[in-house]
Amino acid sequence: MKKLFKKALIYSSAVMAMIVSSCSMMETPQLPEYEQEVIESTQIYRIHVGLHGAGADTRLSYQEATVEGKNVMKTLWSEGDALTANASPGSETDVYTFIITEGIGTGTGVFECEVDQGRTLPENLTSNAWTIYYPGSIQGEQDYFDMTYTGQTQDGNGSTDHLKNYHSLRLSIGEKVSFSDSYIDLSGENLNESMCMKFNLSGLPSGIIPTRIELTNIASDGSSIDLFYTHNYLTSWWSGAVPDKTKTNTMSLDLKGFEETSSVTAYMMLSNASITVAGGSKLKVTVTASDGSRYYCEKPIGADVTLKGGTMNSITCSSWTEAGTIDGFDDPAN
Length: 334
Description:
The protein is mainly beta. Helices cover 2% and strands 41% of the residues. It is built from one helix and 27 strands.
């Protein structure tokens, strides 16, 4: 039977339901319209998905590079990667899962989606809400909001392996795209992505085994500030989903597989939501050792600094103050 190809992905952010705390009304997105014809046999769709254009304000990955004189993270696809295309992101209807088949270890992967017999073809849906999510476990907007950045553990000094469990992407497509052998670039202003904080820590007391890093924002009066989102957050989203707006004053990263060292290189994923660190405040880094001893370093913030979603930021500490010992400390490495 001849397949119908409408090949349209329509820009979603122009019709997103804007949620405002003082107003409970939300615009309902246009639901997909269906052609009468559905597939009569299994159909394979192939899309080429690129993670290109590393720049000083680029998206994340697991390999560092220097671009425009700044450290960035380059994205490389890995085995088992999958992403989803959702025509009704406020729900988990009309979700198509694409699994990588080529391009592992590169920035451009080929992903395939097998559409079973009797199911509507993606090009037979006319939707104003097509949204791409990564990883493939995110089926829609609610899954994206439910993703948490707490509980991270890095295994080994300088390792980035743990980042894959906390790295997410959400892309609203703003142009006509075919799901049949087409190219999708995961970049641009319609992309939402996790950010990363790199810790360059040196000068720690010799002989300690670091087991935890904590990052806290301290106000000028000495109080802690709830700065960091614990989940993905958007200022506008598709109706049917409920974001978690929780903020915390401290984000922590457990460390295991470390030997005695005075220098630590560590990476912590943070929410996609950009945050502003107020001028006059401080960022405080606290390191806990396996014996419960604690050491902290404070970095004063001059003017306001905005940490953008989808970028890598870094904090360097070399001067430490002892902060006492935690009695009965439970070493996460044990």
